[in-house]
# Entry
Amino acid sequence: MKNFAVFIAVALLHLAVLPYAAAVTKQTVVFRGRSGNLTAEVPEDLVPLLEDNRVSIERALQDNNVSQSELNNISSTICNQYDAIHIDFLYSKLLNGILDVSGLVDRVIPNSQAQQSVWAQSLISSNRPEKYKVAGGGLNMGMTVFGFNVLEGLTGPLGMKKLSLGPVFLPTLTLDARVCGFVVPMDFGLAFSMFDTSAIGPVSRALDPVSFNFLTIGGDVRYAFFNGKRSHVTASGGAGIYYTKSGLGIDGDSAQVSIDFSTLTAFLSAQASYKFHVLVPFLGARFMLSRSDVNWNVHANWNKILDAENSSLIRDAVRYHILPSTMAGSGTSHIWENPKLDIYGGLGFEFGAFYLTTGLCYDPFSTVFSGSLSTRLVF
# Structure
């Protein structure tokens, strides 16, 4: 009986503590109203957002002559809705989600760029002298495979539907060209690519409600430090740079998110190839460093995010910019933060002036797979 009484006492203690443990952590923020200071007890998570919008909040409070009791009702409703949806750090998770998505794009884009100018021959003029090639170009089709599960960390805090995205296959379509260095054993390459997922039905449906686009331009130079005319083995080292402007959008009922990126990628490469009749197997590696600038914008429907569509007080919070309908920010990924290593190889086929190149690539740092298929005319 005594043990039973102890059990009941412990159970009651847990029940008494549970509501307080589950309650959102609050912090008091002071604003300047028309008649003096006003205080608002809000979720601690929102304090950085309120401080960023302090000027517009205080202007709205003063213009509308908001009283302390009205502000108390608004802040209390916000806290209650935070408790109701069981998210203690909604705004923080939103920022972390944007950072995670930005980091993913920072890993994927350079790897997709790297597939845009892969040639089987380690030097365009590495054929036998009687088949000396000067210049060529054509169409390069690439595919980069990656997981998009990080989007769940972004759509969850915004009250949007859960995304069950498996591996995403991001296609690229590139025009590229290469010209030899004539008397010097080197060649120069240029590449241009653009892509928009919303323009391709199957890709658009697979990514819905996400859209993605990018435009890339860049080039490289390669120098053959071994060019065996008799052995038909060629080894070259190279360097290049690519610039990409890209954007990602999420269009949901509760929020619309847009993230714009500009990525500059520099790389060093080494490649070896062997010419055997019409076949050209090749193997190479590429070390890349990237710098990305990101700007993000969120248009939020707070009534839906906080599951309070009929709450006039949440609408007032939006009207007074306590819960801003638009949030924005920016960030930079510095060049040494995310190094990348591409190990690639494949097989080329040469039929006179027509070249066909197939290749696969893997980045062990970012765990990103890529592949390419190129058709070119070389003269």
Observations:
- Confidence is low (pLDDT under 50) at residues 1-21.
- The chain has nine helices and 13 strands.
- The longest strand covers residues 279-300.
- Residues 238 and 300 are 47 Å apart (CA to CA).
